[in-house]
Design brief:
mainly alpha, NAD(P)-bd_dom_sf, Glu/Leu/Phe/Val/Trp_DH_C, glutamate dehydrogenase (NAD+) activity, 6 strands, oxidoreductase, three-stranded antiparallel sheet, single chain, Rossmann fold, Glutamate dehydrogenase (NAD(P)+)
Amino acid sequence: ALHLAEAGVKVVAVADQYGAVHRPKGLDIEALQQHVADTGSVTGFAGADPLEAQALLELEVDLLVPAAVEGVLNESNAHRIRAGIIVEGANGPTTAAADAVFEQAGKLVVPDILANAGGVIVSYFEWVQGSNAYWWSAQEVDERLEARMLAAWDGVTATAAGRGLSLREAATVTAVQKVAEAHQIRGLYP
């Protein structure tokens, strides 16, 4: 939520394992962070109204980022999801049944294997630095991460457009192609 707010996104709701909070005019994310640091949860935040976590998923918003657990967007709630764009921050938050509903409704779903690849990429950067006795500043890591993520986005969206695929299908095709190419060049590793 902090990164989205810093990028100029109006964040109107946030949830954790204990509950959710909502403020249609936008949450003060820094104050919410301090509240979480003080109390251990978003619940009880004075700058917002309490909300059931399931209700958060169904708010009328432009962008929904399910970023915690698997399967929260499923056949029982998919028809009530009003966000036009869903960016999967968690691993597998959308079931196949929900994905089909979203595709039919024309929602843009940025799949987990693309949307949350940043952690794996930065882990790779750590390995590269450790293996080669490099040290990159946080800014350099961020710049390299942004370049990789944008290149991945460009590749996946080009594959989707060129082949008439969803972003999920295109991301999977792209990933399998990269593994197949690497396997062909170097064989099985190690």
